[in-house]
Amino acid sequence: MRIRPAEPCELPLLQDIERAAGEPFRSVGMAAVADDDPPPLDELERYRRSGGLWVTETGDGRPVAYLLTEPVDGAAHIEQLSVHPDVARRGLGRELIDHLAAVATDNGLCALTLTTFTEVPWNAPYYTRLGFRVLGEDELSEGLRNIRKAEAVHGLDRWPRVCMRRPL
User: Fewest CB within 10 A of the end CB: N or C in the chain?
Assistant: First the structure.
């Protein structure tokens, strides 16, 4: 498996990965998350053009996981990390995050940040194992506060969520 920037023709495949990766949320009573639409093609293209869309490909070149990122207040913010369930639990998410950490370091960024659900095993507990820590409200940057507000408008605050940070 190899990590590389996404190609324009692959964006619909990334939407399929997102839909498949959302299905496990049904098993923890979060059907609304599973039913949420993936990022629209124009949004994926915006990330791709800005250099913030990375995929993990299989031997045949087909993407099976992806990461969306953009700088927020001096950190590389992980907007989305999705791994197709057919290849889950093989370290692909960790590899994408480690790849981002290397790119962010090269670009002078000081940390990785993300927002996530606290009570979903493959969310906050997973990121804690990867070196992220939960930020207190008093530690949130203006950009992270704005992201949390947008998430609340989208309905994601129906379940406990946190901001997390991993220093580089």
Answer: N
Taking Cα atoms as reference points, which of 80, 102, 107, 85 lies closest to residue 6? 80
Strand order in the sheet with 133-134: 2-5, 53-57, 63-72, 75-83, 111-117, 161-167, 133-134
> What backbone torsions phi and psi does residue 10 show, to the nearest 5 degrees?
-90, -10
Of the candidates 89, 22, 16, 14, the one whose C-alpha atom is nearest the C-alpha of residue 55 is: 14
* Token pair 């969306």 in the structure block, residue: 68
- The pTM of this model reads 0.95
CA dihedral of residues 97, 102, 106, 112 (deg, nearest 10) = 30
Q: Which residue has the tokens 């791709």?
A: 48
Pick the CATH number of 2-167 from 3.10.180.10, 3.40.630.30, 3.30.450.20, 3.40.50.1460: 3.40.630.30
69-128 confidence digits (pLDDT tens): 999 999 999 999 999 999 999 999 999 999 999 999 999 999 999 999 999 999 999 999
pLDDT of residue 62: 93
Question: Could you read off the pLDDT of 7-63 as tens digits, one per residue?
Answer: 999 999 999 999 999 999 999 999 999 999 999 999 999 999 999 999 999 889 999
The residue ranges of every structural domain in the chain are 2-167
